[in-house]
C-alpha cells in the first residue's frame, strides 16, 4: 500500500523489550509519519494526518491554562521524562531512560488523551515558523506549500520526551529539535494522528 515511500515495518529503537508493542513508535521521520497517515487514509477511506501545531496544543491542554494539563508541575508518577531534574516545586523521581507503554501512568487529560507530556516528541504537520505572527486562525496547518511528499526545511515537534527535562514537556513548548529536518530520525521522535471524522476520501 505504498503511497510515496517505503516504510520500515517496526522502526522503533526500543522494540526488543517486554511490552514494546504497547509503547509509542519511535525513530520515525516526519516523512515516514506522513506516509503512514497517507496509507491509513487510503486503507480506511477517511482522512488521517498529523495534527497541526494548533490542534496539538489544544488537545494537550484539554481546556487548561497551566504549564501541564495536570497543573503547575508534574512528577514521574504522571509522565515519562528525565526525572533527574525538576520543574517549579516538583520533586525528582524515577527516570526509566526509555519509552514507556502508552497509558501506563493512568493520567489521561480531560479529553482522554495519554502521554501528551513526555514519552516521545510528536511531529506536527506545519512548517516551522519562529513565532505565531500571521498564523492561521482556524487551527489548520501552517504551510508555505502543501505538497507534503516534496517538502523540505524544518518541521515542528511538541510534547517533550523520555529524554528531556520537564521544561521541554510543557503544553506550550515548541521546538525544531536538532533543526527538525523532516528526514531526521531519533529514538525520542514519534507521532500521533488526527482523523477528519466528517470527511471521507473519494
Structure description:
The chain has helices at 30-44, 53-61; strands at 46-49, 121-127, 155-158, 174-175, 189-190, 194-200. It has a single domain (25-130, 153-202), classed as paralog of FGE (formylglycine-generating enzyme) (Alpha-Beta Complex), CATH 3.90.1580.10. The protein is globular, with a radius of gyration of 17 Å. The mean pLDDT is 91. It is α+β, with helices and mostly antiparallel strands. 12% of the residues lie in helices and 13% in strands. Strands 4-3-2-5 form a four-stranded mixed beta sheet. A two-stranded antiparallel ribbon has the order 1-6. The longest helix is centred in the first third of the chain and has 15 residues, at 30-44. The chain contains two helices and six strands, in the order αβαβββββ.
Indicate the topology.
Layout: H1 30-44, E1 46-49, H2 53-61, E2 121-127, E3 155-158, E4 174-175, E5 189-190, E6 194-200
Parallel strand pairs: 2-5
Antiparallel strand pairs: 1-6, 2-3, 3-4
